[in-house]
Amino acid sequence: MMYQLYQAQQDLMAPFRQFARGTGAVLRQFDTGRPETFALRQFTAVLELMGTAAVTHERPPFGFTTVRVGNEDVAVTEEVATATPFGRLLHFRKAVDIPQPKVLVVAPISGHFATLLRGTVQVLLPENDVYITDWINARDVPLSAGRFGLDEFVDHVIAFQEAIGPGGHVLAVCQPAVPVLAAVALMSEDRNPATPHSMTLMAGPIDTRILPTKVNALAQEHPIDWFEKNMIHTVPWRLQGGGRKVYPGVLQLSAFMSMNMNRHVTAHLEQFRNLVGGDSQLADAHRRFYDEYLAVMDLPAEFFLETVKSVFQDHDLAVGRMTHRGRPVRPETIRRTRLLTVEGERDDICAIGQTAAALDLCSNLPHTMKRNHLQIGAGHYGVFSGRRWANEVYPLVREIIAEA
């Protein structure tokens, strides 16, 4: 019922928001920048905020058209290398003749689209042949496509790595660290030719028993039945995925925003000042951030519940109980894939030590082939986006890829 009410509210407000955006655009043409049009500028600023501060359910574009490789700009083309109903393997093909390392970026299914990692990809693109998991919004996946849980996530990582072929590398951001480590363990045990030569795990919950955060505490405070009763809803039948059980992305967004509500309120007040004051650069930066932040995707119910239960409540991988379709997952079988774990000093979602726990789980991997990096001054997102990612973390990723 909650989802139906939410969707009805979205449908009801859509024409109003469209009217606000259109009216604001028209009125903006009459703004001369002089004192006599100051009130008009304030009104159009209010209209823009009302028209754009809304949740959407479609993936924004990555927007890569060219990238600087060496001393020249080369074209970038997005291609779908392979696809399933739940996800596409997106390839950023570049017009270069020089072979580059093939890197699979595994994005989280955590309420936002893969474009949340646009900054991650942007840094990787010049020196690497980049692929990314472009997950499909669960509310757009028909019931006939079946289920998608942790097993299916691992299946996708293996299939996508095989599509890339031998000699590839994998980089997991946040939540996928667990299924990626599981996938590489299974591939290593099977001596799969497509087993990645290096694996980078960034701010991922390998062992959430270590310095539990508020997110970890929430998972421990309630039994899994509570999450199923309170967090899982049914997609309205008029949508493509009608009838599918999901954890709505808007709930995840609400949880994230509530953790830093003052920051978001302040950001919108600043945007009002930017619009009134004519600071287009800051206003554009605000728009880009919130266009991405407010674009949400629903999680398949089975994936959400299995992740909460296996990763955050039972710690199956950390204690050696994780299985994939009934088969034990054994990280100790990883012997030839170089491993880099990256953590943020100020990460309030995945605490220090939780990702580095992978180093001990890969007990048969030589010490010379694994390392941990603690990024000073970085929060959760600073590990894989922004200045610190580009200048301090990525050089280590590049190094481990080159060593492999």
UniProtKB/TrEMBL annotation:
One Pfam family of this chain: PHB_depo_C
TM region positions: none
Identification of the protein by name: Poly(3-hydroxybutyrate) depolymerase
Residue ranges constituting the PHB de-polymerase C-terminal domain according to the UniProt record: 203-403
InterPro entries in alphabetical order: AB_hydrolase_fold, PHA/PHB_synthase, PHB_depo_C, PHB_depoly_PhaZ
Highest taxon of source: Bacteria
Species: Teichococcus deserti
